[in-house]
Amino acid sequence: MRKFKEFFIEKLIFICGLASIFFVVLIFLFLSKEGLTVFKYVSPANFILGKSWYPISEPAQLGILPLICGSLIVTLGAAIISIPIGIACAIYIAEIAPAKIKEVLKAGIELLAAIPSVVLGFIGMVTLVPWVKTIFHLPTGLTALSGSIILAFMAMPTIVSIAEDSLYSVPKSYKEGAFALGATHWQTIYRVLLPAASSGIVAAVMLGIGRVIGETMAVMMITGNAAVIPQSILVPVRTLTATIAAEMGEAVVGSEHYFALFAIGIVLFVISFIINVTADLFLHKRH
Amino acid sequence: MRNTQRSQKIAFFFLFLATLLIVVPVGLIVAIIIQKGIPAINWQFLSDIPRQGMRAGGIFPAIIGTFYLVFGAIFFALPIGLLAAIYLSEYAKDNLLNRIIKLAIVNLAGVPSVVYGLFGLALFVIFLKFGASILSGSLTLGIMILPIIITTSREALESVPQSFREVSLSLGASKWQTIRHIVLPNAIPGILTGTILGLGRAAGETAPILFTVAAFYLPRLPKSIFDQAMALPYHLYVISTQVPNVDEKVRYGTALVLLSLVLFMNLVAIIIRYNFRKKKKW
């Protein structure tokens, strides 16, 4: 009897072990099931490269290039802000900060990671957006730049914690060797530690950017949601994620619009899949 | 020599500056929300239904809705996540299958939250005909927090020393008995930490519940798991972007309640982890 029970439990454990594979496949299947139908109405090339997104006009125009450009410009801006600051902060925490301050800083970073995106979006709306409007003399502060700044804060916790981990896991002997040769602490950091931790830092940056591309609520609240190809960083844009979140509520189930939004979901899923697999390869390079 | 010293000083100054650039805004964000939100918080705000098109009254249905969703998500994700973690830490061999599982977890953690929303809509709301309901929303959030629970529980299980298992096995206990009576009890603080972090994440997410459960305005409490419900993060989104002329105080108050809820859970998780590390005998 006990043997039977254990056999049963171990099978259950095995099945649950496979659950994550099951769910990833399930997500992909259901996105495809709904999303691929859109290619009955529009060719894949016109979907990706089409310059106009008017999903409810007659006939519907389902080109997501403006949305891709919107996501790209916001992500690029966030990357430019968050990568240098994030890596610098990781170095400071891993190498320079005294033990007690280190704990406080790490808790602060965890705090930032925990703030819900809708709260960051709200704070961005009431503080950052008016500033951007007055500083650049714009008709509206709801711009790609505002989105980039808020998103940079969402990418930083990821970048800092993973980069700090990889700096910390560089063997102590590397550092001691550099010191023994008379290098200063800073020389050791940028000539020895940074190169040794480089693959982990690359992974940190990729995962941070992955978080930015997938972020939805904050972006929807502060980028202004104009589905046109942006000419500068100071105009309203609309991202892939915000389009799904803003329009799915009104899309009729089974309409072209509905299928197109799922197709955008496939695009996002594939992007995040590529980023995560590549980042994982970088993280496990050493082993 | 003096040159290298000086460049070190300059470099360290910039590193410090970068750290301030992250930490100071975080402090400011929290301080602003607390300072402007506190005046809105009173018993009526926490216990009343929204009134006058959500411009007055309270946020009680949204608080209750969020609690239902969060506990629904944990109810679903904790058993599966814990068993998956046991598999990975105790049973899995270092082979291709194990590698694929780990990759799947990483991917599940990286899927954008709005894509979870789409998936929940397609599978639970439409295909399984649960409709926009607490059930659909909880299941969607549950799958979303699964990777957090698996990863933290696995770390907790793996940090139990191998010798504990060996002693138990040498005394004649079976593998499952060893896991059940030796490994699991020693890993509970770590598992708890992961569970609470998962709760916090589920409480704060908006995109996955947009099309699976969230009601724009529902001035009564849900009666069953097939009802729609209001939820705090979605309510904050609605009153800050969809409803004109909402008093700023109400917005900040809602933001403060949501932020306190999420940060409180994270704080509890941090304290459990800290105490556990201090007490750890191995």
Write the layout of secondary structure elements.
The complex is a heterodimer of chains A (about 290) and B (about 280).
Chain A: H1 2-17, H2 19-35, H3 44-49, E1 53-54, E2 61-62, H4 65-96, H5 99-114, H6 117-135, H7 144-168, H8 172-180, H9 185-196, H10 198-214, H11 217-222, H12 240-247, H13 256-283
Antiparallel strand pairs in A: 1-2
Chain B: H1 2-37, H2 43-47, E1 50-51, E2 56-57, H3 60-91, H4 96-110, H5 113-127, H6 134-158, H7 162-170, H8 175-204, H9 207-210, H10 232-242, H11 248-279
Antiparallel strand pairs in B: 1-2
Helix pairs in contact in B: 1-11, 3-6, 3-8, 4-6, 5-6, 6-8, 7-8, 8-11, 10-11
Your description of this structure?
- The complex is a heterodimer of chains A (287) and B (282).
- Chain A has helices at 2-17, 19-35, 44-49, 65-96, 99-114, 117-135, 144-168, 172-180, 185-196, 198-214, 217-222, 240-247, 256-283, and strands at residues 53-54, 61-62.
- Chain A is mainly alpha-helical.
- In chain A, a hairpin with a 6-residue loop joins strand 1 (53-54) and strand 2 (61-62).
- In chain A, helix 4 packs across helix 10.
- The longest helix of chain A has 32 residues, at 65-96.
- The mean pLDDT of chain A is 91.
- Chain B has helices at 2-37, 43-47, 60-91, 96-110, 113-127, 134-158, 162-170, 175-204, 207-210, 232-242, 248-279, and strands spanning 50-51, 56-57.
- Chain B has a two-stranded antiparallel sheet.
- In chain B, helix 5 (113-127) crosses helix 6 (134-158) and helix 7 packs antiparallel against helix 8.
- The radius of gyration of chain B is 23 Å and the shape is globular.
- The model of chain B has no long low-confidence stretch (mean pLDDT 90).
- Chains A and B meet through helix 1, helix 2, helix 4, helix 5 and helix 6 of A and helix 1, helix 3, helix 4, helix 5 and helix 6 of B.
